[in-house]
Amino acid sequence: MSADIAALVLGCDGTVLSAAERDFFRDVNPLGFILFRRNVEDPAQVRALVRDLRDAVGRHAPILIDQEGGRVARLRGPHWPDLPAARAIGDLPDAEMATQAAWLHGRLLAATLADLGIDVDCAPVADVPVPGAHDVIGDRAFAMDPDRVARLAGSQAAGLLAGGVLPIVKHIPGHGRAFADSHKELPVVGAGRADLEVWDFAPFKALAHLPAAMVAHVVYTDIDPALPASVSPTVITDIVRGHIGFDGLLFSDDLSMQALSGTLGQRTAAVLAAGCDVALHCNGRMEEMRDVVAHARALDAEGLRRWSAAAGLVAQAPETDINAMRAEFDRLLAG
Fold first, then answer.
1. What angle, 0 to 180 degrees and rounded to 10, lies between the N-to-C axes of helices 146-162 and 95-114?
2. Which of 254, 262, 306, 298 has its CA nearest to residue 280?
3. What is the distance between the alpha carbons of residues 239 and 201, in angstroms, rounded to a whole number?
4. What is 78-107 written as a DSSP string?
5. What is the rounded distance in angstroms from the CA atom of residue 97 to the CA atom of residue 75?
6. Catalytic residue among 23, 82, 183, 222
7. pTM exceeds 0.90, yes or no
8. DSSP letter string, 2-44
9. Residue 194's Cα: distance from chain center in Å?
10. Is 253 a catalytic residue?
11. How many CB atoms lie within 10 A of CB 261?
12. Contact between residue 244 and residue 205 where contact means Cβ atoms under 8 Å apart
């Protein structure tokens, strides 16, 4: 790769950046990095790793993490506060209280991340499950109602931004109807486009103003019977950019997930050719990353524009009483 920013977000292997990783990232110059449980021990260690990742590329690269609350939380006790899954908020009977709780949830997540130098959260989840769908989404979704999901996901995203953290809404254009876990196999959704538009796509259309999104590895047979959304030019052009109207930075879901076929390099080329701005590879395995890099490209003009617009929304959060916010959040959840 050249000195241009590569259209990639990559992971690293452990809690400390190795010399080989440092040299590799310097040469590749990925847009940013993503952290997982294997990368975190305690706050001081995470801050040092974040600093070293940015030093490797010589700029303030975005650092991503999946910190939704509930079962999807890379940062856990005893060093970091636990927050519930989105469904605990969506189950609140009072709409106004739920909306406030969703904002506080996002703001509290942001406080944890910003303290470590992490500035991008792969949240909110705007998927809408259907009865009998695979539990891979489950309680990660706010509700089984598109309007409620849109409102609460939007409020959580606003809380994240208020705390200086960029939200990535997922999994556009919708993973909730899937009857398989895309980490392990390819989900195939046979619903007609009309049903998808009023249920699956609706929250993402309502949230199309958000700055970033992650696209699902899911086949929608009524739109493209052959390819999952993440590698489908038809889905990305006609649905994500077209019907939904999303013009923010578009990430692929993790290239290592078993929903995709082909080598890691082939997957990388496919998601970028389909219209994703950035390919995401998470597991930090050097042999895979070399294949990914060999088939990647520089972030193009549209990707740079979208990233610049997204990054421009991230600002240092004002001083606030986080303990008081947590107390108010707990009060709302208690009903």
1. 40
2. 254
3. 8
4. TTS-----HHHHHT-S-HHHHHHHHHHHHH
5. 26
6. 183
7. yes
8. -SSPEEEEE--SSSS--HHHHHHHHHH-EEEEEE-GGG-SSHH
9. 26
10. yes
11. 11
12. yes
In Å, what is the CA distance from 27 to each residue of 20, 232, 300, 302?
A: 11, 30, 18, 23
Find tokens 């294949």 and name the residue. Answer: 291
Please state the length of the chain.
Answer: 335
- CA pseudo-torsion sign 238, 243, 244, 245: positive
- Structure-token pair, residue 159: 């809380």
- Is 58 buried (19+), middle (13-18) or exposed (0-12) by CB count in 10 A? exposed
Q: How confident is the model at residue 242 (pLDDT cuts 50, 70, 90)?
A: very high
Which helix (H) or strand (E) covers residue 253, if one does? strand 249-254
Selecting among 119, 224, 253, 277, the annotated active-site residue is 253
φ/ψ (deg, to 5) at 214: -120, 130
Give the pLDDT confidence of 124-149 residue by residue, as tens digits.
999 999 998 888 999 999 999 999 99
Q: Token digits for 270?
A: 């496919």
Q: Where are the alpha helices (DSSP H) in the chain?
A: 19-28, 43-57, 86-90, 95-114, 146-162, 193-198, 202-206, 233-234, 264-274, 286-294, 301-311, 322-333
183 annotated active-site:
yes
Q: What pLDDT digit, counting tens, does each position of 91-100 carry?
A: 999 999 999 9
At 5, the amino acid letter reads: I
CA-based nearest residue to 20, from 289, 221, 212? 289
CA dist 8 and 208 (Å) reads 22
Nearest to 117 by CA among 167, 65, 70: 65
pLDDT in tens, 269-312: 999 999 999 999 999 999 999 999 999 999 999 999 999 999 99
Tally of CA atoms within 13 A in the half-sphere of 130 that contains its CB: 14
